[in-house]
Write the structure tokens for this entry.
Amino acid sequence: MAVLVLGGAGYIGSHTVDRLVEQGQDVVVVDSLVTGHKAAVRPEAKFYQGDLADKPFMRKVFSENPEIDAVIHFAAFSLVAESMKDPLKYFDNNTAGMVKLLEVMHEFNVNYIVFSSTAATYGIPEKMPIKEDDPQNPINPYGESKLMMEKIMRWADQAYGVKFVALRYFNVAGAKPDGSIGEDHHPETHLLPIVLQVAQGKREKLQIFGNDYNTPDGTNVRDYVHPFDLADAHILAVDYLRKGNESNAFNLGSSTGFSNLEIVEAARDVTGKPIPAEMAPRRGGDPDSLIACSDKARKVLGWKPQFDDIHKIIETAWAWHSTHPNGYDDK
Ligand code: UDP
């Protein structure tokens, strides 16, 4: 038995590979290194550079590693704003890529896949916290591309028996507490890394996108979860499929919402830096609030997130950013 991690050199993928290796599992990683970093991958994992939509390449990976019985799929583009500007990039890479992947998995009789879905599949939620069977009406192409991937997997399950778990993440923040791996995007667009770059003096100030949302302080409210807790959920989901359970979808969040202003305040506490911030216009495609109900993952998968305090999450992110001001380029 071995797990193939697609996108294992990315932010959440590298934390999952780290956890799998720590557990002594056999791990094969595929990453195109378009957004991932080779230095983020544990050397114990067998690494292939390539694109999951390249069927001859993926056939080589599966033929050389016949012990692979499960795939964890992180390899997707994930920026809301970019997806609004260039939707076809998302439908091609994310959605069409999934079709190619499932074709090759089916050829090689690999029947388990755990897949990174997203809170963005829900669009503007009717009620909070969001439950798995709430309506999914995405308001940006990123969320739409992932919802299409979920639907494709449902039909592939029905026709070919490829069982899946879709994990719908909320906002991800934090890093391995020893500061050895973390978040490194070029360009960086995510709130917490940008806040911490301001704390480091790498940026002059933070722009907060919109303060006229329907939330207590007018800024967006998001639910933050640590990549190690996400990693554990993926590993539990692989176990769940290996035990012969049916395909399923789970929300992964902390079930607590923090506004953008509250995140800046918490980061000021953790870093002791002033972190100047100014209000800026809304960014397209942002719903007012997104808070997960994660009861189902806790009950069915036995998921127990360890990082339940936003200060703790920010401390781990700070451990990474303060030791790697230029990300993996510092190596
Ligand atoms: N955000 C912001 N300033 C920034 C980056 C992000 O105000 O420089 C806001 C963004 O509008 C959203 C929240 O921070 O309300 C989280 O955005 P992020 O891009 O981190 O994650 P997303 O919610 O898009 O997955």
Summary: The radius of gyration is 19 Å.
